Amino acid sequence: MSGRVAADVEMKDSDIWSLPSARHNTDELPYVHKVGKPPKQDLLKEIKTALKETFLSDDPLKPFKDQPKKRKLVLGFQTLFPILEWGREYSFSKFKGDLIAGCTIASLCIPQDIGYAKLANLDAQYGLYSSFVPPLIYAFMGSSRDIAIGPVAVVSLLLGTMLREELDPVTQKHDYERLAFTATFFAGVTQFTLGFFRLGFLIDFLSHAAIVGFMGGAAVTIALQQLKGLFGIKDFTKKTDIISVMRSVVQAAHHGWNWQTLVIGVSFLTFLIVAKFIGKKNKKLFWVPAIAPLISVIIATFFVFITHADKDGVQIVRHIKKGVNESSAHLIFFNGPFLAKGFKIGVIAGLIALTEAVAIGRTFASMKDYQIDGNKEMVALGSMNIVGSLTSCYVATGSFSRSAVNYMAGCNTAVSNIVMSIIVLLTLLVITPLFKYTPNAILASIIISAVLGLIDLDAAILLWKIDKFDFVACMGAFFGVIFASVEIGLLIAVGISFAKILLQVTRPRTAVLGKIPRTSVYRNVEQYPGATRVPGVLIIRVDSAIYFSNSNYVKERILRWLSDEEEMFKDQPRVEYLIVDMSPVTDIDTSGIHALEELYNSLKKRDVQLILTNPGQTVLDKLHTSNFADLIGEDKIFLTVADAVLTFAPKMEQA
User: Fold this and answer.
1) Which of 180, 161, 162 is nearest to 123 (CA)?
2) Which of 215, 149, 155 lies closest to 398 in space, CA to CA?
3) pLDDT in tens, 345-399
4) How many Cα atoms occupy the beta-carbon half-sphere of 262 within 13 Å?
5) CA distance linking residue 249 with residue 227, whole number of Å
6) How far is Cα 284 from Cα 297, in angstroms, rounded to an integer?
7) pTM metric for this prediction
């Protein structure tokens, strides 16, 4: 019976005769199924089922069932390291696609990494370090074939902003770097813990609308921060809100702008935007926007070198440390006052990085029609950031722009990340001295062109059309970021997401139902204006579980529906029966049952009978256990609304 439990017992003639509205009409009435007491459920089984659905909904242990010990061991290693599973079927034809994709995203990530490191107030080499070690770890442990790992703009800005509130990146550089590694370590621990204990559902509390607004606001903030490098401003505000940034830009207009820097920055920004437009218009030319940043860096660096523009005030990178990552395990704060600060920053940065990576992974998995395990992804991301924190890396995650290029370049597996890591390694060993004359303006242009894609106007317009509350959440997060700070915007995003949940839980929808003509179906009269009300009967549907948080509201709303009905239809027969359709009510607690008892007593004083239809197994069991079913009478609980109407208003149902 569609998951609903009812006693398989036919209603006896005496039962039908006992109903006051049906005594004279029994010969014409069709069969009405009696809803009896459901079989008693085993408590331990209920707890086991609830825990399984909460933490093991995807049944990860299913492949291990009925397997020998050796096979279970192999499956365990394959679960932890998916590369051991898909690597057996790897071929040269797949490698060709991964090689092209890896080279393509490497050309994009190298200039981006240098810029993102500056966004986090770290030396340029740390951005490259973070695109060397973490992608290697992810390639062995991750389940996504398309995601490209490395530093990203939003997390870099968030990390840089929060770290700078604790330490100055210039005067306290060493401790600043130590705190960055500490935050990265705890970001990894947070991600690993959520995945290992299968708590990934917690990140779903940040709604899509809030993420759209937060990302858009962060993109605007990042772009504004790059005006310093784009205009060659030396004295620039350390605040991130739009008012402080624009005031700083305007104040520097008379003496602080460098026209050579401005020409370089605007020229290459235009070039990068045009390249992105070409790639967007023609998918076959995806490589144009991918390689454009590297070409820009090469041309701009060569131009500054031959013209000695650095002597005319054009700010340049000057030095990138050559060589591979050094160990940073001894630099992490495992005690002292910065331990708690590193933990706080790491948890926040880790959750944002996790949300972005999982969203990207799911997007590309759906496009290629394969599944990724969210909890495995969290373990992989956490592991790579823990290892990264020990090897001079800061928080890395999935980059949408690089992942999109990786996808369009024809990647087949995570080997593209390995190829990218090798190219970054060669860059660290050989090429870094060549970046000495790279102007900061070109890095600012690359970052601005990259973050423009984070502003999703189409999504915001769609939110306005579909759900105004979602649009408010989106705009709240957006304006919180650009007018206050990244942290405030994040708090607003989380706060509005929870507010929406609380509003939906505490104020569930209720609806008056009417009969669709020439059917036995009862639906919302507002959705179906042609649905007719049943004279003398008010049918209400409650579209939510009934808990302590909404039980009083549900009771009062039903009574208000009754009062409104009596006032609107004074010339019609008064309401004698109130039918509550409980099909959508998935659960009820003691407060909910108490509210139903109060509703029953209020209706009794008005000489109105309370009737329930289609309660689920859990709800029905609790109604019987609490003796509420005995209070209203088991003959007042029906399988469908049509059965209830057929019993108490047979002429209307047969019409």
Assistant:
1) 180
2) 149
3) 999 999 999 988 988 998 898 888 888 888 899 999 999 999 999 999 999 999 9
4) 8
5) 8
6) 24
7) 0.84
- What is the structure's pLDDT at 29? 55
Q: What does the DSSP 8-state code read for residue 34?
A: B
One-letter amino acid at 121 equals: N
- What would the two tokens of residue 301 be? 């660096």
540 forms bridges with which residues in the sheet? 512, 580
Among the listed residues 398, 402, 409, 399, the one whose alpha carbon sits nearest the alpha carbon of residue 283: 409
Please report how the helices 415-426 and 133-141 are oriented relative to each other, as an axis angle in degrees rounded to 10.
160
Give yes or no for residue 26 having a pLDDT over 70.
no
| Tokens 């605040």 -> residue | 239
What is the number of residues in the chain?
655
DSSP letter (8 states) at residue 534: P
pLDDT at 17: 36
Is 265 within 8 Å of 259 (Cβ atoms)?
Answer: no
In the structure encoding, which two tokens stand for residue 282, read together? 């023609």
* Structural tokens at position 151: 């530093």
Facing residues of 580 across strands? 540, 612
At 439, phi and psi to the nearest 5?
Answer: -70, 145
DSSP letters along 404-446, please? Answer: HHHHHTT--STHHHHHHHHHHHHIIIIIGGGGTT-BHHHHHHH
* Dihedral-angle region of residue 11 (phi above 0 means left; psi in -120 to 50 means alpha; beta otherwise): beta
Measured in whole angstroms, the distance separating CA 55 from the mean position of its chain's CA atoms is: 18
What digits encode the pLDDT tens for the residues 143-197?
999 999 999 999 999 999 999 999 999 999 999 999 999 999 999 999 999 999 9
Q: How far apart are the first and last CA of the chain?
A: 26
Which has the closest alpha carbon to 613: 642, 587, 589? Answer: 642
Q: Which three-class secondary structure state does DSSP give residue 272? A: helix
CA 120 – CA 106 distance, rounded (Å): 20
What are the tens digits of pLDDT across the range 231-252? 999 888 888 899 999 999 998 8
Distances (CA, A) of 158 to 164, 230, 410, 487: 10, 21, 32, 8
Q: Phi then psi for 360, rounded to 5 degrees?
A: -65, -45
Q: Which phi and psi (to 5°) does residue 612 adopt?
A: -115, 145
pLDDT score of 49: 79
Number of H helices, E strands in the chain: 28, 8
Contact criterion met (CB below 8 Å) for 236 and 512: no
CB 340 within 8 A of CB 461: no
* Collapsed DSSP state (helix, strand, coil) of residue 510: strand
Residue 216 sits at the vertex; the CA angle it makes with 107 and 279, to the nearest 5 degrees, is: 35
Half-sphere exposure in the Cβ direction for 237 (13 Å, CA): 18
State the virtual CA torsion across 319, 165, 216, 111 in degrees, nearest 10. 10
pLDDT at 25: 45
Helix (H), strand (E) at residue 218: helix 208-225
14 pLDDT exceeds 70? no
